[in-house]
UniProtKB/TrEMBL annotation, chain A:
Gene3D superfamilies from the UniProt entry: MetI-like, P-loop containing nucleotide triphosphate hydrolases
Intracellular or extracellular location(s): Cell membrane; Membrane
GO biological process: peptide transport; transmembrane transport
InterPro entries the record matches: AAA+_ATPase (IPR003593), ABC_Ni/Peptide_Import (IPR050388), ABC_transporter-like_ATP-bd (IPR003439), ABC_transporter-like_CS (IPR017871), MetI-like (IPR000515), MetI-like_sf (IPR035906), Oligopep_ABC_C (IPR013563), P-loop_NTPase (IPR027417)
Topology versus the membrane: Multi-pass membrane protein; Peripheral membrane protein
Record-given protein name: Peptide ABC transporter ATP-binding protein
GO molecular function: ATP binding; ATP hydrolysis activity
Organism: Virgisporangium aliadipatigenens
Keyword Nucleotide-binding on entry: yes
Ranges where the ABC transmembrane type-1 domain occurs: 70-264
Keywords in alphabetical order: ATP-binding, Cell membrane, Membrane, Nucleotide-binding, Transmembrane, Transmembrane helix, Transport
Automatic annotation (TrEMBL), chain B:
Assigned keywords, A-Z: ATP-binding, Nucleotide-binding, Transport
Protein name: ABC transporter domain-containing protein
Lineage: Bacteria, Bacillati, Actinomycetota, Actinomycetes, Micromonosporales
ABC transporter domain ranges (all copies): 4-228
Gene Ontology MF annotations: ATP binding; ATP hydrolysis activity
Superkingdom field: Bacteria
GO biological process terms on file: transmembrane transport
Entry's family note: Belongs to the ABC transporter superfamily.
Entry annotated with the keyword Transport: yes
Length: 619, 233
């Protein structure tokens, strides 16, 4: 995306780098003569109109020499970087090329260990060592700096390759009999090129500085050639008399070094971090008009979540009664998770939430208030899909639970811990007093999910929002976690909002089901009648698409034709119309309103078998 | 006659034994389902057959010979199993045997097999949906004309609505081409739908193996019963 490039730093860096590179090519051709012209009448002059940066001990124009030296300085830096990156790629990919045979693995480890040792040495020390080995002079310095930068490149390549090598497409290519070298060239290198180029650009800046350093010390470029480092060294002797002789090459080094580094930074930002581009404008929230009805824990009306111009949740309304269990089902991208996050006030910029009504426990959540934090912290519990990432891996389970009680209920350390143990017992963690002292990695997936639920129960929640709580779990564990949720609901009178793509999961736990499609609720019905009395064609297709233990094996599964709706390009009429076997002209033209629990012009119409068939072929 | 044969296979990672002494036969033209919880070793067994993991003991054979080049695999995550920098056509062509005369028409034939239009060959993976990517992965698995296809959790990363189309495709291909398939999944209902026989794996061992109907209607091992209880509400 070009707009990611358009920030002042990136533009300045690009222009600067381009100028340096053009100068490196052009200057030696244009100003060589002037730079080499010896004028014994003008020895060691200060700056003047004729010689901007003065003259050196042979009366040569220093400014011209600085410009001409750009060529040698920059090309040496680039060549050194090229050496570094080439050697780095060879060393970094060696472990992969050696293969997985025992001998290969051993050789690979040897190379890695060698690289690890080299990385531990400071770069300049290595460069000095190599400079002595390769002899004093430009070639020696080139090899020295090149090889000195190789270890860090090798390390980088090794890490990147290790990340790529685990991808399944590498395994697939290996199974297809693709050789290691081809694997490397075709699959690995193209996929690590971006970070490598970014690092190479910055390394070129570093190499430029190193060259200046070596030449300054007299280990680099030798007479009669000259680069910025040597000029700096020569000029330094008379810095009090003719400061410009040392300052001019010094400034050149800084400018060129900055150009490389800033450009590298800009590149890194362009390929890596994606800046949120459009900030949504905050629309003023309408004053609350509704009276809160005491029965509902959560009342939502006209909830919308938008990211810039895209609105993935398009005005949904529902309520969750005290102790009620409501399921939300839909495909990925239907907006079901965003709905949950919006209710818990967890949507962050650039996302924007608006609603005609958003009440939790009778409290209007739309106005940002500090008090909400406490209310949400104690009365609302959130359980996410992946319990591994939602727990801090370095802290004991009991501590993490206790922290909640300390924060929101003001309990002291000891009683908070006691409550944590009690809550772990409540979620059926065996031997809770001992388990509370363990770290998350000592818990199995199911146990971690229990601990997460237990964390939600540290307060006295009125509502638990569970977003795909069992998707990452085994079937056997899945069942026990669902049973736990069901049991807690009865015992603690907690309402539950369960979000899942799996109709069977929702059916097991919930009283009522909301079916979402393209950011809207398209049907609302009792969970018990999901399989028998669903009226929206989408709900029926969703139910039929999931094989269960009674699905006839001799017939193809029902499927939903086409792709899920793209929230950025919704059709004019019913969003499901393009995939619907029943859709006609009206469906394509007019968006159906929610009437008696279903938003469909054809609600309840019979889907003829041949239409079902057609939808299969089209997918 | 069995095509893919695991004979007392053991796989270890360091000091951990992940697959213990597993013997399993996948007969020609059959779909054998392999179910088990996460970490039971079912995926490791698959990777061992594909030559991605070395064996610590036992033997894996195809038709009595080396499995090398005769097994192909479809992976779980359609987002990580296709090279993002390579066009679909190139990905498929790479998996074709070396001396394929008309690669272009062969790629088109493969895409047609999995119900994708031939112009998809020019696209990159990110231009396809998850279900379409999984179809490409299946087409790639068919490219080398393998004796056995191993499908490792190929529907678990997909939406339920797309899962159905992929399962239908596998069944259809099996019927049409007499494919031999080792179908691995943690979802018993999915395995039941596509498999002729079902093997149940727990903690690195196969604890039960038999015709699908027998295993499901009269499970012998307690773990199989536990799995069955978990899916029947």
């Amino acid at each position: 995306m070009p707009r990611r490039w358009l920030n002042p730093t990136a533009i300045a860096a690009g222009v600067l780098l381009l100028a340096v590179l053009v100068m490196a090519v052009v200057a030696p051709i244009v100003w060589s003569e002037k730079a080499d012209a010896v004028d014994t009448d003008q020895i060691l002059q200060g700056s003047s109109a004729e010689h901007w940066a003065g003259t050196d001990s042979l009366g040569r124009d220093i400014f011209a020499r600085v410009l001409v030296a750009t060529g040698l300085s920059v090309s040496l830096a680039l060549a050194a970087t090229a050496i570094g990156i080439s050697v780095g790629i060879v060393l970094g990919t060696a472990p992969m090329l050696f293969g997985t045979s025992p001998a290969g693995v051993r050789a690979g480890r040897l190379v890695t260990a060698f690289v690890n040792i080299l990385v531990a040495f400071p770069g300049l020390l290595l460069a000095l060592f190599f400079a002595v080995v390769f002899g004093v002079g430009a070639t020696g310095a080139l090899l020295a700096i090149g090889f000195a930068s190789a270890p860090s490149f090798a390390r980088l390549v090794h890490t990147l390759v290790a990340g790529i090598a685990e991808r399944d497409y590498i395994a697939a290519a290996r199974i297809a009999g693709v050789g290691r070298v081809r694997l490397l060239v075709r699959h690995v290198l193209p996929n690590i090129a971006e970070p490598l180029v970014v690092n190479a650009t910055m390394a070129a800046g570093g190499a430029l500085l190193s060259f200046a350093g070596l030449s300054f010390l007299g280990l680099g470029v030798q007479i009669p050639s000259y680069d910025w480092g040597r000029m700096l060294g020569e000029g330094l002797g008379g810095i009090y008399v003719h400061p410009s002789a040392a300052l001019a090459p010094g400034i050149a080094v800084i400018v060129a070094g900055l150009a490389f580094n800033l450009f590298g930074e800009a590149l890194a930002r362009a390929v890596g971090l994606r800046n949120p581009s459009a900030r949504p404008h905050r629309t003023p929230v309408a004053p609350a008009v509704s009276t809160s009805d005491g029965a509902a824990v959560l009342a939502v009306e006209g909830l919308r979540v938008s990211y810039g111009a895209v609105t993935p949740v398009r005005g949904i309304s529902f309520a969750v009664g005290r102790g009620e269990s409501v399921g939300v089902v839909g495909e990925s991208g239907s907006g079901k998770s965003l709905t949950a996050l919006a209710v818990a006030r967890l949507i962050e910029e650039p996302g924007h939430v608006s609603a005609d009504r958003l009440e939790f426990q009778g409290e209007d959540l739309r106005q940002p208030k500090r008090a909400h934090r406490k209310l949400l912290g104690t009365s609302l519990a959130m359980v996410f899909q992946d319990p591994m990432t939602s727990l801090n891996p370095t802290q004991r389970i009991g501590r993490q639970l206790a922290e909640v009680a300390e924060q929101h209920q003001g309990l002291n350390r000891r009683s908070a811990w006691a409550r944590a143990v009690d809550r772990l017992r409540a979620v059926r963690v065996p031997d809770p007093a001992r388990r509370a002292k363990q770290l998350p990695h000592e818990f199995s997936g199911g146990m971690r999910q229990r601990a997460m639920i237990g964390m939600g129960l540290m307060g006295t929640p009125a509502l638990v929002i569970a977003d795909e709580p069992t998707t990452a779990l085994d079937v056997t564990t899945q069942k026990s976690v669902l049973e736990l949720l069901r049991e807690l609901r009865e015992r603690e009178a907690v309402a539950l909002l369960l979000i899942s793509h799996d109709v069977t999961v929702v059916r097991q736990v919930c009283d009522r089901v909301l079916v979402m499609y393209a950011g809207r609720i398209v049907e609302e019905l009792p969970a018990a009648s999901l399989t028998t009395a669903a009226r929206h064609p989408y709900t029926r297709a969703l139910v039929a698409a999931v094989p269960d233990m009674d699905t006839p094996r001799d017939r193809p599964l029902a499927t939903i034709a086409g792709r899920p709706a793209d929230p950025a390009a919704l059709p004019e009429g019913c969003a499901f119309a393009p995939r619907c076997p029943l859709a006609d002209e009206r469906c394509a033209r007019e968006d159906p309103p929610m009437v008696a629990g279903v938003a469909c012009w054809k609600a309840g119409a019979v889907i003829a078998p041949d239409l079902q068939k057609r939808s299969e072929a089209a997918s | 006659m069995s095509v893919l044969d695991f004979d007392r296979v053991t796989v270890t990672f360091g000091r951990h034994t992940v697959v213990r002494d597993v013997s399993l036969a996948v007969p020609e033209g059959a779909v054998v389902g392999l179910v088990g919880g996460s970490g039971c070793g079912k995926s490791t067994l698959a990777r061992a057959a594909a030559g991605l993991v070395p064996l610590a003991g036992g033997r894996i054979t195809v038709d009595g010979g080396s499995p090398r080049g005769r097994i192909s695999m479809v992976f779980q995550d359609p987002y990580s199993s296709l090279d993002p920098r390579m066009r679909i056509g190139a990905t498929l062509a790479e998996a074709l045997p070396r001396r394929t005369p008309d690669r272009k028409s062969e790629v088109a034939r493969l895409l047609d097999l999995v119900d994708l239009a031939p112009d998809r060959a020019r696209m990159y993976p990110h231009q396809l949906s998850g279900g379409q990517r999984q179809r490409v992965a299946i087409a790639r698995a068919l490219a080398g004309d393998p004796d056995v296809i191993i499908a490792d959790e190929i529907t678990s990363a997909l939406d339920v609505s797309i899962q159905g189309t992929v399962l239908n495709l596998i069944r259809e291909l099996h019927r049409r081409m007499r494919l031999t398939v080792l179908f691995i999944s943690h979802n018993l209902a999915v395995v039941r739908y596509v498999s002729d026989t079902i093997a149940v794996m727990q903690e690195g061992r196969i604890v039960e193996h038999g015709p699908a109907d027998d295993v499901l209607s009269a499970p012998e091992h307690p773990y199989t019963r536990e799995l069955l209880e978990a899916v029947t509400p």
